[in-house]
Design goal:
Rossmann fold; Dihydrodipicolinate Reductase, domain 2; binds NADPH dihydro-nicotinamide-adenine-dinucleotide phosphate; binds the ligand O=C(O)C1=N[C@H](C(=O)O)C[C@H](O)C1
Length: 247
């Protein structure tokens, strides 16, 4: 199917991302099938859409997984902050429909994620402490950001460990000394910062920092629409920016 024939529905169309997605769909040559805010009917939107792009809130993810899998409508999921139970529901949906999930649709930050995995694999956890720093606008409701967690997961993958086993988030008070092998997170909030992420590796003798600053949310909207065009017509399964970008 070419872009002009593809009908894209937007869950979260009244939000910061949803409004930009509504602009980005026709700019990419696709058709805006419609959109819903919190009171909208996702099942009805799914029936009118070849792909649904979803940027809402974490609490919707399990419900949306069931509705879109039931409707057989491919799902591009940009929402962050969901828990392991929702993660399992996304995996169940991916057995029935194609699901493209990304914490961040900016191509550049996905290169940072890929490099973070490589640094994690190359720099020993015993010598190089890994810390992830993120800063976002004052309206953001989840922390650490989905992207920060994706960077941390990449470092952990490179080190051959589970992030959950080594994650050190929200230090405050008498924390004790840093654990060797821990992956630390710090989240800053303020103003209208679109999204900044750094992965910082520090040893006794050197420091390596990978940084990405998103300067305009359109980078996420354009990436999500590109993902929708890429996803349409694929087999059920779980896809992400690594597949789209060939990383
Ligand atoms: N993957 C990526 O590249 C990016 C991901 N994000 C993520 O996308 C999500 C949305 O971000 P943003 O647009 O800034 O958020 P906003 O708060 O601006 O928008 C949230 C949207 O979700 C809707 N919504 C709120 N509650 C519910 C509900 N209970 N059920 C259904 N819909 C609901 C809102 O509808 P209403 O107006 O009716 O309340 C609104 O349309 C966040 O999780 C954010 O972290 C953001 C940027 C990039
Ligand atoms: O809420 C946001 O704004 C953003 N959320 C995503 C995240 O949690 O990583 C992506 C981006 O940083 C903007």
């Amino acid at each position: 199917m070419n872009g002009a024939d593809l009908r894209i529905g937007i869950a979260g169309i009244t939000g910061r991302m949803g409004k930009l997605l509504a602009d980005a769909v026709p700019l990419a040559g696709a058709t805006l099938a419609g959109g819903i805010g919190r009171d909208g009917d996702l099942a009805a939107l799914a029936r009118e859409s070849d792909v649904v792009i979803d940027f809402t809130v974490a609490a919707t993810v399990s419900r949306h997984a069931g509705i879109l899998a039931g409707a057989g409508t491919p799902w591009v999921l940009g929402t962050t902050g969901f828990d392991p139970a929702a993660e399992a529901d996304i995996a169940d949906a991916a057995a029935r429909i194609p699901v493209f999930q990304a914490a961040n649709f900016a191509p550049g930050v996905n290169l940072v994620i890929a490099l973070a995995e490589r640094l994690g694999a190359t720099l020993a956890a015993e010598t190089h402490d890994a810390e992830i720093l993120e800063m976002h606008h004052r309206q953001k409701i989840d922390a650490p950001s989905g992207t920060a967690l994706a960077i941390g997961a990449a470092v952990a993958r490179g080190r051959g460990v589970d992030l959950a086993a080594v994650k050190d988030s929200g230090r405050d008070g008498h924390t004790g000394k840093r654990e060797t092998g821990a992956i630390g997170f710090a989240a800053l909030r303020g103003g209208q910062i679109v999204g900044s992420h750094s992965a910082i590796f520090t040893s006794a003798v050197e420091q390596i920092t990978l940084t990405h600053h998103a300067l305009d949310r359109r980078i996420f909207a354009e990436g999500a629409v590109r993902a929708a065009l890429w996803l349409a017509g694929r087999a059920p399964g779980r896809y992400g920016m690594r597949d789209l970008l060939g990383l």
